[in-house]
Amino acid sequence: MDYVVRAVRAEEWERAREIRLAALRDPAAPIAFLETYEQALTKPDVFWQERTARSSAGEHGRQFVAEASDGLWAGTVSVLVERPAGEPGFGEAAEVDQAHLVGVFVRPGHRGRGVVDALFREAIDWSWSLTGPPLQRVRLYVHEANARAAASYRRIGFVPTGRTLPMEGDPTSLELEHEIRRR
To answer: Span of the secretion signal (predicted)?
Structure first.
């Protein structure tokens, strides 16, 4: 694989913005992300600068990118650290110390080349390496109709927990929780 997987750096906010906008233009975006391309376009530069700076600091989360040999960011994933004593994460307050993978995206021309596997390995390894109370699991949610993503996650080792949440903006659709437990 000709990709380098690494954490995003604060000064790369324009590239972080570009890959997010590309993700939101993907045909799967309506069931994969909780914001639209149009919503993201309205956010000022300072939003992207602060978001990227927080992601690079790695205190409560981190964004990882897979950089192709030509410098293009082929994919990305973000990790949010959720602790029982912290703010409620996606859906509900954390019952255990955990990480939550969000914002998963691989550009169409780079799919099927191991990019998502490499991104997830880096995100999971980073999650297990954190100081403080050890994280017990890494979780993610996938829309019930996103079979391609769900198959990738299962192949990597995520298993369904049986927990579901109604899709934001469409309560007739479900988000299915998957997890990897710390060994």
So the answer is: none
pTM (two decimals): 0.94
For the residues of the chain, what is the DSSP string, one character each? --EEEEE--GGGHHHHHHHHHHHHHSTTHHHH-SS-HHHHHTS-HHHHHHHHHHHHH-SSEEEEEEEETTS-EEEEEEEEEE-TTS---SSS--SSSEEEEEEEEE-GGGTTTTHHHHHHHHHHHHHHH-SSSPP-EEEEEEETT-HHHHHHHHHHT-EEEEEEEEETTEEEEEEEEEEEE--
Q: How far is Cα 96 from Cα 114, in angstroms, rounded to an integer?
A: 30
CATH number, domain with residue 142? 3.40.630.30
Could you tell me the residue range of the domain that residue 18 belongs to?
Answer: 3-181
Q: What percent of the chain has pLDDT over 70?
A: 97
* Structural domains in the chain (count): 1
Q: HSE-up of 181 (CA within 13 Å, CB side)?
A: 5
Lookup: tokens for 159: 């298993």
